């Protein structure tokens, strides 16, 4: 499990691909790769991957074809920056909301507004996932736990403070970029339960 509090930014050093599988060598900031065990889970842009090897500050991860297809990892290239979070431990503070690291879908950035000391990013999700997105609800975008702002049909926005921009890759993003989305599990459960009872969410 993860908390959605991004611990830092790492850099993709190398990607090697064989049929159906890609191996990522990702360079972590100094001291952030200490005490990582083989088999540990790490969130890479919101996608839970397993550490397969370590060489100094570089951790290695394998991603299957299905993972590459369903997430943005298949578009990564050497030099790209990614958000990371190591798995939460019992007793850790849950500063965001509980995440599984299982990406539900992707979203496209359709607008960015950057007034002084603020940043608002608007996203568009596939219509099928819009039913789980509510104003002031939780959502994870590239592994970061964020509060949803305004919602209009299958579009929504988030408002980012300077600290979030400093600690994540959101400051790098431009219109047209694609991000990983994990829907809040409690929201999904409630919406699906109400739908089975005949109380489906009305159209926006």
UniProtKB/TrEMBL annotation:
GO terms for biological process: riboflavin biosynthetic process. Its EC number is 2.5.1.9. CDD domains: Riboflavin_synthase_like (cd00402). It catalyses: 2 6,7-dimethyl-8-(1-D-ribityl)lumazine + H(+) = 5-amino-6-(D-ribitylamino)uracil + riboflavin. Residues 1-97, 98-194 form the Lumazine-binding domain. It holds the Pfam family Lum_binding. It is an enzyme of class 2 (transferase). PROSITE patterns: LUMAZINE_BIND. One of its GO terms (molecular function) is riboflavin synthase activity. Lumazine-binding repeats lie at residues 1-97, 98-194. SUPFAM superfamilies: Riboflavin synthase domain-like. InterPro entries: ATP_synth_asu-like_sf, Lumazine-bd, Lumazine-bd_dom, Riboflavin_synthase-like_b-brl. Pathway: Cofactor biosynthesis; riboflavin biosynthesis; riboflavin from 2-hydroxy-3-oxobutyl phosphate and 5-amino-6-(D-ribitylamino)uracil: step 2/2. Keywords: Repeat, Riboflavin biosynthesis, Transferase. The keyword Zinc does not apply. The keyword Transferase applies. Catalyzes the dismutation of two molecules of 6,7-dimethyl-8-ribityllumazine, resulting in the formation of riboflavin and 5-amino-6-(D-ribitylamino)uracil. PANTHER family: RIBOFLAVIN SYNTHASE, RIBOFLAVIN SYNTHASE ALPHA CHAIN. This is Riboflavin synthase. It comes from Marinobacter salarius.
